[in-house]
Design a protein that fits this description.
Largest sheet: 6 strands, antiparallel
Shape: globular
Order of helices and strands: HEEEEHEEEHHEH
Helix content: 25-40%
Oligomer: single chain
Number of helices: 5
Strand content: 15-25%
Number of strands: 8
Length: 213
């Protein structure tokens, strides 16, 4: 009986192991990316008016860095939008902001309006940094209620101690046939630049591209 049980276990393993191996292979093929290749991800079910915050964090978009070489950069300003830039709730640390001001990353600065231009390895976009205002406070107050209320002030203080990112031009990565920058494309660029630890629930952790090798 014991030998029979052992044979049954061996048969089960022989039957299922190929499925596990295939699942791993299919997963890698589905994502279509080398594990060592850099990429950036955002939540793509963000709520309009929440500056990129996703309520459910249920839809992802992931872009390989190499994809930016096949897209073009366009300004946010367009006849299709009233906005000339897209404000986001993505945070960049005050430490990184100071390094940018001191010229640590050789970014081009347009002094008339304080817009910085990033251009490296096929990635091109422009941005400004600012302190979070009442619009961001309202987003936090809308979420940090009830059992989450204790987090409101710590997260708000984190925003006040650092900076948020406003995108002025971005890559048309999701709709390359258009010359209009969608808000999700602005969020992608902000996430590329932003801190790797984002405190606001629903803002995807950033890539901190300035510190990438």
């Amino acid at each position: 009986m014991k030998q029979l049980n052992n044979r049954l276990w061996i048969a089960v393993l022989i039957f299922f192991v190929p499925f596990f191996l295939c699942a791993e292979t299919d997963s890698a093929q589905t994502w279509g990316m080398n594990r060592d290749e850099e990429f950036v991800s955002i939540y793509d079910d963000f709520d309009d008016g929440s500056y990129g915050r996703s309520e459910y964090r249920s839809v992802f978009r992931t872009v390989k860095m190499s994809a930016f070489a096949r897209t073009k950069t366009h300004p946010v300003a367009s006849p299709a939008w009233e906005e000339t830039s897209h404000l986001t709730a993505v945070v960049l640390s005050s430490e990184r902001e100071e390094e940018i001001r001191q010229g640590a990353y050789s970014l081009i600065l347009r002094e008339m309006d304080g817009v910085y231009y990033y251009s490296r390895d096929g990635v091109n976009f422009s941005f400004t940094l600012e302190k979070a205002g009442e619009e961001i406070r309202a987003v936090l107050e809308g979420y940090y209620q009830g059992r989450n209320a204790d987090w409101l002030e710590p997260v708000w203080n984190h925003y006040q101690e650092n900076y948020i990112i406003r995108i002025h031009s971005a890559e048309n990565i999701f709709e390359p046939w258009r010359e209009v920058i969608q808000y999700r494309e602005a969020i992608l660029m902000a996430t590329l630049l932003g801190d790797r630890d984002q405190w606001l629930w629903g803002i995807h952790d950033g890539s901190d591209i300035l510190k990438l090798p």
